[in-house]
Input
Amino acid sequence: MKFFDVANGGLLFVLVGIGIAYVILQCVLFLRMSLKRARELGINEKVISGTIKSSAVFTIAPSIAVALGLAVLAPSLGIPWPWLRLSVIGSVSYELMAANMATSALGFAKLADAAKAGPEPLGAIMYAMTGGLAGAMILDIIFVKKVDSLAVKMKAKAGDFGTIAIAVLYFAVIAVFVVPFFGQGFVAVATFATSIVLTLVLAFIAKKYKIAWLGNFILAFSLILSMCSAVLWTGLVK
Amino acid sequence: MENREQYFNRINRLGRISFSIFFVMLFAIPTIVCAVYDIFPNLATVLKATMGLFLILTPIAISEIVSFVPLLGSGASYLTFEAGNVSNIKLPCAMNALKNAGVLPASEEGEVLSTISVAISSIVTTAVIVVTVLLLTPLAPVFANPGVRIATANVLPALFGALIVAFMAGGESGSVVIKGQWKAMILPLAVVAVVHYLVFPIKGWEGVTILILLPITIFGARFLYKKGQIQVISKEKKA
Output
């Protein structure tokens, strides 16, 4: 039996399908619960439908990048395992690294070399990639409730400053991701700048011409258009 | 109608139970495959291969829990950590939804809307990947297209360019307006710039850097708040 007989085998497809279906079921359960709660809290139906539509449209473009990750991993690991990792639990930025680290710990120079050694390395790679996240998952199960509860209490206790503290938390995330773009060359900087300009222009248009629906899609449209602009900037550099 | 605490406990109970089942399912997949094909690896080999990843991914998880849970709330956090692609899809998606709705994180409305946003986002990502799996062969030329590769390689600059504008400009949060909140962005940007370009590149250390940057950002905002540079104004008063 060869590596890909298992990696692209029917059994793994079925198991992965069950895993993904389980997470979708969970999403539906949480969605139902939160929609009911939103109506109980008197949140405007327009706000709810705006949230649903803008979230769906926003997600499409970055999901294509994830799908590309699948296309990169599939020749080395088969289709179902990367499908599972990229649909649930994994991240397109870590999965390739995780697969490579697991493979090199097994003594292979490249992912492709592991595939040549028969089906045995596949089990070790799957266990290693799952086990590597075990600590993270256990911490999530234990601490999500505690941290959320603490944040709500601290916000209430700190009064006006609590409101500010929560509002600026995301600035730390933005700073960590934004600053390195300036060292990644012209295309990254130009794409970043294009996205800023497009967002400002779209926000201006939405406000000036009172196009309420556009407000929900500014991020999605800026994202898609500035990703396309990257192709133009690359062409200019060449 | 349930009060806030009852809803909070119920969504956490659902989250913890369903996440625990998911945890078991994830380990069951390689176990069943190895048992059926008789390819169980040596335990020492697995531990050796797991350890490196465990040591990298666990601190990232700590950072994500401390920094993202207060923003997302419990319901959205369980879904986000299960569905993955946290900082490139789920978190920006939820933050954008809250911004559009004019709602603050760590509020009842914020928790509910971010859960709706992440649930929809997870379903869409899964659908896109299902389509990719089904059409992997016919889509191969599309994925190999240099234009598509360039566009997807630049998803983060495109995403964060839009986000930085949204968060620096916007200060409407529920019943209040936060005036001058963009000033709180300067300190974290300056700290990361100094560390990344003068001390050591933060690539691969993003999680730890966020963890260190959180108190710095909050203390910077507190200083600006005390100096009157950032103000919280109620919308009624403003009107």
User: Anything to note?
Assistant: The mean pLDDT of chain A is 89. Chain A touches chain B through 148 residues (CB under 8 Å).
